[in-house]
Amino acid sequence: MLKRILFSGALLVCGFYSGSAQQIPAWQQLASQPAREQCATMQMDSALRAKYPEMGSRAAFEKTLQERIEQIKKLERTGRLADVVLTIPVVVHVVHAGEAVGTGRNISEAQVKAQLETLNEDFRRKPGTRGFNDNPNGADIEIEFCLAAINPTGGTITERGIDRINGASNFGKSTWSKADIDGVLKPNTFWDPEKYFNIWVVDFAASDDRLLGYAQFPSQSTLPGLSPNSGAGSTDGVVIRYQSFGNAEKGNFPVMQAPYNLGRTLTHEVGHWLGLIHIWGDANCGNDFVDDTPTQASESRGCQKGRVSCGGTNMVENYMDYSDDACFNIFTRGQKTRMRAVMEVALRRANLVNANVCGTSVVARPTANFRAENLRVLLGGQVRFTDLSTNFPTSWTWTFEGGTPSSSTEQNPVVTYNQPGKFRVTLVASNAAGSSAPFVREQYIEVLNVGLCADQTNFSGTRTVLRQPGGTGYVAGQNSRKTKAVSEFFDNSLSYNNMHGASLRFGVAKAAKGAETESIVTVTVWNARGFQNGPGAVLETKEVPLRTILEDVANNRATSIVFDRNVPLSGLPFHIGIELTYVAGDTVALTTTRDGESLLGTSWEQNANGEWERYRVRQGLNVAHEITARVGMKPSVQLTASKQFVLPGEPVTLNARGASIFSWAGQNLSSTLGGQVIARPTQTTSYTVTGSGLDLCNATATARIYVQPGTITGVPTALPDEALTVSPNPSDGLTAVSFRNTSRGILTLSVRNVAGVEVLKQQYQKTDDGFEKTLDLRTMPSGLYNIEIRVGEQVVRKKVVKY
Ligand SMILES: [Zn+2]
Question: Are 664 and 678 in contact (CB under 8 A)?
Fold first, then answer.
């Protein structure tokens, strides 16, 4: 396929230029071919970071990397940098479909060896090979690759560095798309990425048949909650098409296809795996963050020697270009510094050089080493330790100063810290050859004097209600620019998992219909996966009566809310804010700090077009909203009321969650115990539930029910919550709805999105107690939806989350 495209492309050019074809340099003919998707590293990087936000951004990694690069350059200038050759153990997963060894996709051991030899020639700039150059900027990277001799359980590998995988019998696939490789193949076949550099050699599926390979960029995995061998760790490595893995000059390998048959696809992808970017910076005259590679307009094809772009002669021989294999021969000194820095700052890379799995057998004692999942924890928090000792230890002796337990013999223990301070951790690892020296990390774990339940705010300063500059209304509320919503960003740096409530301080609240208003204000929680950490999908909403806010503003206090459930934060950043409506003529505005009192740019607004922007960017204001998030590692008691405005004596169902035993206080309750009670208030009342029986962050929750004068007519009766179950929830959109009660007749099933818009409505005839339906929201955007089932005057609602 690839050959055919190359051939027809060249023919077209020849035909067009007819007789003068020989005057056209070969590279111009090649450059006029349709662009090939040769290397998918950049594309896969974006997808991976979207899937695992805890990897952090490439920009953040670049910052750490540049700091280390500057240090290395300084050491080089003073001659204080010792030259050490780093050796990286490799496992090549040869993915075949049942062919005999050495045939077709099941490439021979000789082909694998030829490839590794080529990789080392290129990385060591070895004289007398294609990997040599005499460019003054050309560098010996001083990194070598060895084929592993020991497998992850300490056994000897018969064909060194090779793991043959029958894709057909194990996964039912003989050809592989990128999605299947990263979703199925890699997570099921990877070897510990801190001991082995994983390379998969595959036959790409037809959808990817223009692809030669792709790599996973290095990342910092020091963020809390990110286990190095899960998430992005399970896909770390390089994928190469089998027709381009090897070197046709080093043996008879008939499956290899020119012009990508000299093993340089792997050199290119290992460059990415060690942090290098394409030489053209993936943009027109873009930046590859290396200062001795010439700027280049775009990828080169064929071998465009002497190509000029971006005001200079390009380096088409650089492995990070798209030239043919035979054209390549150089990594620069700047690229070397970058790769060597990656070997220090990227954790999975750094540990590889100590893996010691290329030796022939386990004869030496272990060298103890370990890492903690997180170095800072909350008081009462837990830390998981990961053994990184070499030489396949069989027993471990850990000592944890300040921890519970204070010692352990597990390989990867979990320890709880109940006192603040900085604590030492010690490990001795042993195998049949003996015990290691104790490995000690002093003051390794820092336990903060902050609990598992906390109030977090960015507000610190002078309480202010900012007027809209050059318009009417308020910056953090309704205004003449028709701001749709405002939010406050919380970085959640201590990785809280739950939010049970929030408090928001309003400086202004006016109701067009006066004190008896039934208007509501929506408080919303978003994840921070929007553009530049802006608000993304809605995690939860809570409707607050404007009357509550009027009372709170009049009494000069913040408005406290309890969400209907523990909002799952998953340890990630989030936003809390209010959504603004303009129809009723009501007005609200949050208080903020004074301009200049907050420099972190945590306040955001959604403009009239629905786009989110920071205040700092849009309006040049450095403020923080007065919003507090009630967060915790443990659950809290949650309270839902079926209505907030009722007529005197009208029933309201109150549901409590989060604990095992509940007690209630308030007027006219059907019971003072249990998870669900019916209240029939005759005047406006606050109902409070107290939970017990579990370790909780907050044991109480309150709901205020407003009573209107009038009589009861035709008001729907709320059914008990248990009448409706939705599972799974959260879901990918496909979820089963199950409703049970004794009523019969027309049943209406409707679904509304968070904006209250009905997105689905269906009617059925209910003829017995049970009603089951599969709901398909897969074509709808991610977020929160409200499901309602109504039979006659009876109604039940449930929130569902689509991720
Ligand atoms: Zn590439």
Answer: no
What SS3 string covers 16-28?
Answer: HHHHHHHHCCHHH
The owner of tokens 């990997």 is 131
Cα dist from 702 to 185, 685, 698, whole Å: 50, 10, 11
CA 179 to chain centre: 17
Which segments of 659-756 are extended strands (E)? 661-665, 676-679, 685-692, 700-707, 717-718, 724-727, 734-740, 745-753
Fold of 455-631: Jelly Rolls (2.60.120)
The 3-state DSSP class for residue 162 equals: strand
Gap between the Cα atoms of 195 and 198, Å rounded: 9
Q: How far apart are the first and last CA of the chain?
A: 38
Q: How far apart are CA 453 and CA 497, in angstroms?
A: 10
Residues 6+ apart with CB under 8 A from 666: 679, 681, 685, 686, 687, 688
Measure 310 CA to ligand 1 centroid, in angstroms: 20
At residue 82, the pLDDT reads 61
Q: How far apart are CA 222 and CA 54, in angstroms?
A: 10
Count CB atoms within 10 A of the CB of residue 443.
12
| Cα 666 to Cα 443: distance, rounded to the nearest angstrom | 51
Instruction: Give the whole-angstrom CA distance, residue 159 versus residue 569.
Output: 47
Tell me the CATH class for 721-802: mainly beta
Q: How many A from CA of 177 to the centre of ligand 1? A: 17
Give counts: helices (H), strands (E), the chain. Answer: 13, 45
Separation of alpha carbons 91 and 201, rounded Å: 11
Q: CA torsion sign, 148 to 149 to 155 to 159?
A: positive
User: What residues pack around ion ligand 1 (CB closer than 5 A)?
Assistant: 39, 41
Using 50 as the pLDDT threshold, list the residues of the chain that sit under it. Answer: 1-36, 221-230, 711-714
CA distance 156 to 16: 59
Q: How far is the CA of 199 from the centre of ligand 1 (A)?
A: 15
As given in the structure block, the two tokens for residue 638 are 């949650």
Q: Whose structure tokens read 């998953």?
A: 570
Q: Name which of 370, 474, 507 is nearest 426 in CA terms.
A: 370
User: What is 370-447's CATH number?
Assistant: 2.60.40.10
* 273 CA → ligand 1 middle, Å: 10
Q: Angle at Cα 371 formed by Cα 399 and Cα 228, nearest 5°?
A: 145
**pLDDT score of 35:** 43
CA of 274 from ligand 1 middle (Å) equals: 12
- d(CA 107, CA 244) in angstroms, rounded, equals 11
Q: Work out the angle between the directed axes of helices 58-77 and 333-345 (0-180°, nearest 10).
A: 120
Q: How far is the CA of 141 from the centre of ligand 1 (A)?
A: 18
**What topology does CATH give the domain 638-715?**
Immunoglobulin-like (2.60.40)
pLDDT of residue 577: 97
Let me know the angle formed at the C-alpha of 586 by 582 and 587, rounded to the nearest 5 degrees.
90
**Top-level class of domain 38-78+85-278+331-347:** alpha beta
- Which residues does the annotation mark as catalytic? 269
Q: What is the pLDDT of residue 360?
A: 62
**Beta strands across the sheet bearing 734-740:** 724-727, 734-740, 770-776
Cβ 497 vs Cβ 630: under 8 Å: no
Ligand 1 midpoint to CA 323 (Å): 11
Quote the strand ranges of 491-571, DSSP E.
Answer: 498-504, 506-510, 520-527, 538-545, 559-568
Ligand 1 centroid from CA 751, angstroms:
45
**Topology agreement, domain 638-715 and domain 721-802:** yes
Q: How far is the CA of 37 from the centre of ligand 1 (A)?
A: 10
Distance of CA 407 to the CA centre of its chain: 34
- pLDDT digit string, tens, across residues 533-560: 899 999 999 999 998 998 898 888 999 9
Return the domain boundaries, the chain: 1-34, 38-78+85-278+331-347, 370-447, 455-631, 638-715, 721-802
